[in-house]
């Protein structure tokens, strides 16, 4: 037996995050025991800031490594049994995940302190979840995919219930856990059936041996699809999302709506690319219905929401629908559009959740949309960020959200013309109509902020330094991606996001 | 090729930077800058711009006349071939004259504003907001005159319109002021519509002729390609009586002139300018006397290569200008608001400028723009000083006898009055003289003798109403209530300083364009009309050939006519003011007609505004917008969607985990069933 041919360098970003996750509880304990020079223990808020900065640091190192890996040739961890593939698409998705979680970590310090839940394990959980997400998007093997999924989900369950004294937070965590384990069970069952039918767990192998007439394999594939559809919250597997997002601490909701979804989408893309090729035509009508339902139900339900977080939850369901459209197109252009959309979506959703998180300071929750009344007068910065994010989510030109939608629907229309498929064309029409519906609830938020008198009561808090930074980054990114999507001059390197995304989707 | 100079862009950009800086400050910091900072930035920017302009103009004059172009190209603004618009600036003799006026007179008015706006405490941020708008205006005006193509000119054109709107309604808390601002904006839209049509038409024509361009230099080089082109009526309009031939250049020229009518308040779009007096007085001086309203004249001079080829458009311009001059001058005779008199006077003087332009005496038009900027700014600022002294009283029937209490204001105002009346040798005499001469020799204008007569009469009227104003304000007994009377005094140096400088300019401003015969005769300088020769390469005025004796006689006539006006004013308002009441009583109907400004506003209100509002409100708004679009289309859809969510979908979202899982199972079952059955 020879030693396995391992390439540790390929998984270096994952290792960094893993080590960070392991060290974070240690840092927490150390900070608790350290005396300052005045021989007093450091305050909880101070420790929280250090922890949040440390987490941010770990994630930034991983981010830089992913940037480095993005342009390089694809690598696998174990060259004999490739279960982890680090190619362009993985790197791109990793970057999106890392940016999202990095911004969340940076904003978390003050957020947790204000809610008096400033405990160090939060950051350990966060890093573990990020590790899971990165594994999920890198896995080319069903077993690794399951490990990544669970490694991501379990910390998130805990984070959703992080406000132990809050009934709604507990409810949120429990619901998520119950429904989530059910979905995991389904996914695992599907994995077992697929293995039974094909004798392999490798996605590429499954694709190669796919027998479209084998009902066991088809049922296995369907169950796998359901398991992943749960994570990205497509209709009818979406119902947990509003309840869970509403109850969870707001930043955790933001994390769930963005990075978790990005990771699950990554896995879904991988499964479609590698394994489900032979049943594309069979899945097409099912996915078509799913996409239409997801867009429509998400948008329609969002209209009647009074709670900002629930509204954002349904909004994220609707965006899942748009993304599904991109996957459905299945072309190179479609997938790069999906990748671009994921990046844009992460910024605008995080910004929106971030504003709600700032407003939740000091236990005074301002979660109703009506609570935003007059925000433009009291906190113009928050109102401006929120407006930018809402306008972008609605897909108005000049913002990242518009460019994302534009690319997706352009891909749809191009493909529809190329294949003379009227159903694809209809998909584009329904998608655009849905965007119009979404204006109702997205634009209501700026309307309330700018045109309604605030209810009497104390003014909302200012955002903290790091929170403000995060919000500013989100708003700026939304605008920049909206204006220069094709050649966005990032601070250090010229990163052609769209071009890069199309390169990423080209790798096997 | 032409020389480039990257300093040129800073002439407009400096005021822009100042405006943006103080605007952002107000927007984000919510409390104004210290007063000194506002003055430094607000006045410093136009002054710096002025100094830079002088430097650039000197650089320009060093070149030989045929090569007097400095171009500063910033970037390609619109590159949609064949339509191509650069954001670039062009300094040539015409824009050189204009930028010197805009920044020079503009700077003086900015300085004056420090004194004028200082006592205004209607709003604590007003002082800074005022300078922010004024700087923004200066920027827009400079873009207008420096733009090297029609697109950039149009940007400035709209920019000054916006600033004019903002500044007329500066004290917007008073609804009347806001309404006046809107009126100015809306009336200008009519003109802008024509201007835009002109741009489209001329670009289309050049494109059709194989030279797609809207750049002035290449337009003037290729204009010959358009000569003789005609516009055919579309087939569905063929029932109209056949207008002889729709010359393309004539139509384009008339479109542009419609724009000029709006901006420069010519008949029939003159109605906004008197109402624009609702703005602070420095605004009236800068925008509604010295600079913005002359933009139309500038444009005609700028497009002179086009107009010179179309006598029809030229005659229209001349006649509209002449009639406006007479019409507005008559109205000014009976106005009692000091600023309204000046406003109608401005309309009238602008009419003179268009008369000159239409007579192809472009340099005379531009010359009058310059001298008018001097003396009309002086008169407005003097009026502002009076208004401040009278505690914001503007009615001249309550003034009188101010000469003792406000000696500086009185002296400078008198200089302005003499200049505008055309008394030699003040600046107004020379410019007006050339306009009359131009009208006299303009053979291409039908009925030019009548036109010339009209302008001569207007000269008399001008002298009459200006001296009426002067006597009513400064001589006789003060008619104000006692508590105001005791407070009347001269304003501080911020106010008096610019008045003195402008008075000096009004006196000597004529030397730049002194007709050649005076220069030779009195000073022994050949070619003393430096402005005419300076502008020659850009706007070639028509050459006339009449004897020197005739030219002298014409000037003498103008002088004596002005003297007549002054004499009548002196009799009626100074020596024998008892004659006035019986005279107005005898001419009652005529007096009322003029007092009510010929009922033009009322006519527009009845004929245009009210029917438009009626259709807009009753038909378009209530029936179509509210009834059809809002109720049925928009709200109907919204209600439907909401009902779907409220009555149906939301019951699926029960909150019970069991039901969620059940639905998931159901969904999975459907999916699996489909997969197995559908293979």
Q: Can you walk me through this structure?
A:
The complex is a heterodimer of chains A (508) and B (679). Chain A contains 19 helices and four strands. Chain A has 508 residues and is mostly helical. Chain A has one domain. The longest helix of chain A has 32 residues. In chain A, 61% of the residues are buried. Chain B is mainly α and 679 residues long. Chain B has three domains: 148 residues, no CATH class; 349 residues, no CATH class; 25 residues. Chain B has 27 helices and five strands. In chain B, α2 runs antiparallel to α3 and α3 packs antiparallel against α4. The longest helix of chain B is centred in the last third of the chain and has 53 residues. Chain B is globular and about 110 Å long. The mean pLDDT of chain B is 85. Chains A and B meet through α6, α8, α9 and α11 of A and α26 and α27 of B.
Question: Secondary structure elements and their pairing?
Answer:
The complex is a heterodimer of chains A (508) and B (679).
Chain A: H1 12-33, H2 44-70, E1 75-76, E2 85-86, H3 88-114, H4 121-138, H5 142-160, H6 167-198, H7 203-209, H8 215-232, H9 240-247, H10 250-274, H11 280-303, H12 308-329, H13 332-359, H14 375-378, H15 380-394, H16 400-419, H17 422-451, H18 465-483, E3 488-489, E4 494-495, H19 497-506
Chain B: E1 3-4, H1 10-29, H2 35-61, E2 70-80, E3 83-91, H3 93-118, H4 126-146, H5 150-168, H6 175-208, H7 216-222, E4 230-231, E5 246-247, H8 248-263, H9 272-275, H10 281-290, H11 295-302, H12 304-307, H13 311-334, H14 338-358, H15 362-389, H16 407-421, H17 427-441, H18 448-474, H19 482-485, H20 493-508, H21 516-523, H22 530-535, H23 548-575, H24 580-586, H25 588-595, H26 600-652, H27 657-678
Helix pairs in contact in B: 1-2, 1-4, 2-3, 2-4, 3-4, 3-10, 3-15, 3-20, 4-5, 5-6, 5-10, 6-8, 8-11, 8-13, 10-15, 11-15, 13-14, 13-18, 14-15, 14-17, 14-18, 15-16, 15-17, 15-20, 16-18, 16-20, 17-18, 17-23, 18-23
